[in-house]
């Protein structure tokens, strides 16, 4: 637990949120909530939106560290992390490599697959050579129910669940609006779990249930029909198994500090890794604060724990 007495040692903190990615709206909400929590605890924090400011202003304002609350490209993909390292300003969460790998769903799956970690069957659609005529064969190969995901987007943006070749063709073309590469993944029919990771430990898992076709953007941020179960209802042994799998998956991608691993459970009980998030949402509907609360951390305490990752992960 980060000691309140050390708050003054954190110095001047820029909470970086907003940005220019497709997830800007969520980032604004996350960043505002985190900034207010830090201010309540006496941290010398201020808002910094890189969409309208130059990064050199961080140096001009004598910023001691940055709490990154940017979701998506430009903030969660290693680009901002590299820029801050160049400026020699410590920042929260994963470094350049972990951020870049976790942001790319295809490379994430390839690494997990290489290490023998369970993940669903998949294929890759590339905008440069995708042929609509291949959709029927892809559907058959992946079990006739497929999740379509832009390789480098978050918050379920551009995602679709399809059950026919025609739907697959349409969904892939829609996903190409967000990315030149699209992940086509076998749909796992079962409960979805998420495991938050905070400074080397797994927090209690959360099981999500939604009346939506899948846990999409609306289910995450816009309506109140999603139900979150934490504790998730797993036995003690299965909870420990899921926690261990999630930590292995997190570390395999060179992630560090804090983040989240999303998992599906098949009918036979097998856990299948979906993706990693290195800057998860911190809104009132977000998952990490829910898990932290069950683990005994308030939202305010959680923000300090996240900020504390800047003290050890990337400080020169």
From TrEMBL:
One of its GO terms (molecular function) is metal ion binding. GO terms for cellular component: cytosol. The keyword Ion transport does not apply. InterPro entries: ATP-grasp, ATP_grasp_subdomain_1, D-Ala_lig_Van_CS, D_ala_D_ala, Dala_Dala_lig_C, Dala_Dala_lig_N, PreATP-grasp_dom_sf. Residues 109-308 form the ATP-grasp domain. Pfam families: Dala_Dala_lig_C (PF07478), Dala_Dala_lig_N (PF01820). Mg(2+) 2 binds at residues 275, 277. The keyword Transport does not apply. The active site is at residues 23, 155, 286. One of its GO terms (biological process) is peptidoglycan biosynthetic process. Its EC number is 6.3.2.4. Keywords: ATP-binding, Cell shape, Cell wall biogenesis/degradation, Cytoplasm, Ligase, Magnesium, Manganese, Metal-binding, Nucleotide-binding, Peptidoglycan synthesis. Binds 2 magnesium or manganese ions per subunit. Pathway: Cell wall biogenesis; peptidoglycan biosynthesis. Cell wall formation. Belongs to the D-alanine--D-alanine ligase family. This is D-alanine--D-alanine ligase.
């Amino acid at each position: 637990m980060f000691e309140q007495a050390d708050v003054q040692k954190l110095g001047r903190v820029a909470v970086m949120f907003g940005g220019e990615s497709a997830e800007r709206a969520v980032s604004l909400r996350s960043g505002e909530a985190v900034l207010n929590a830090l201010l309540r605890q006496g941290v010398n924090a201020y808002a910094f939106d890189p969409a309208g400011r130059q990064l050199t202003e961080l140096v001009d304002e004598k910023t001691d560290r940055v709490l990154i609350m940017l979701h998506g490209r430009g903030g969660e993909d290693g680009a901002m992390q590299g820029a801050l390292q160049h400026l020699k300003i410590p920042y929260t969460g994963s470094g350049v490599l972990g951020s870049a790998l976790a942001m790319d769903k295809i490379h994430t799956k390839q690494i997990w697959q290489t290490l023998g970690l369970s993940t669903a069957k998949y294929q890759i659609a590339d905008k440069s050579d995708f042929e609509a005529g291949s959709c029927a064969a892809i559907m058959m190969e992946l079990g006739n129910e497929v999740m379509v995901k832009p390789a480098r987007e978050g918050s379920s943006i551009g995602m679709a669940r399809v059950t026919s070749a025609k739907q697959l063709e349409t969904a892939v073309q829609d996903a190409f609006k967000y990315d030149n590469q699209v992940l086509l993944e076998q749909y796992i029919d079962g409960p979805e779990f998420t495991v938050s990771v905070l400074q080397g430990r797994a927090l209690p898992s959360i099981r999500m249930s939604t009346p939506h076709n899948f846990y999409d953007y609306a289910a995450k941020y816009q309506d109140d029909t999603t139900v979150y179960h934490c504790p998730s209802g797993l036995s003690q042994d299965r909870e420990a198994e899921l926690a261990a799998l999630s930590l292995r998956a997190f570390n395999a991608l060179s992630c560090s500090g804090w983040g989240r691993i999303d998992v599906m459970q098949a009918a036979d009980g097998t856990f299948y890794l979906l993706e990693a998030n290195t800057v998860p949402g911190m809104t009132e509907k977000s998952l990490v604060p829910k898990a932290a609360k069950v683990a005994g951390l308030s939202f305010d305490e959680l923000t300090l724990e996240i900020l504390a990752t800047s003290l050890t992960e990337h400080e020169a």
